[in-house]
Amino acid sequence: MGAMEEDAARSLRVLFVTAPPADAPTLGRTLVEERLVACANVLPGATSFYWWQGALCRDEEAVLWMETTAGRLEAATARLREIHPYEVPKIVAFTPAAVHGPYAAWVHAETSPRDAT
Predict the structure, then answer these.
(1) pLDDT tens digits, residue range 100-109?
(2) Which CATH code, of 3.40.50.1370, 1.10.260.40, 2.30.30.40, 3.30.70.120, is assigned to 3-111?
(3) Whole-number percent of the chain with pLDDT over 70
(4) Read out DSSP for the chain?
(5) pTM of the model
């Protein structure tokens, strides 16, 4: 792996988000279209149990895994907070221990702002 790929791999971030199944594709697509994330994987069929306002809840959700860069992480999470239907959305960012260098370089390329020409 070259130095550029190593730098890209070190700054890759993975977002873990849950959402209602009907909303998850729109959330993922919006962040990809706006180049805040390079890829959004929507995994339907999650059953979540949690406490909310004193009640034990059970909901069907979809899980989104999305890759971005450290430099785009703040903008991506801010945008998610704006468009997510939950009052308190689950938005968790991970720094991966290992990343395939060419994939990390692709994530960087796809999340770079484009010139409006």
Answers:
(1) 989 999 999 9
(2) 3.30.70.120
(3) 91
(4) --HHHHHHHHTEEEEEEEE-TTTHHHHHHHHHHTTS-SEEEEEEEEEEEEEETTEEEEEEEEEEEEEEEHHHHHHHHHHHHHH-SSSS--EEEE--S---HHHHHHHHHHHSPPP--
(5) 0.89
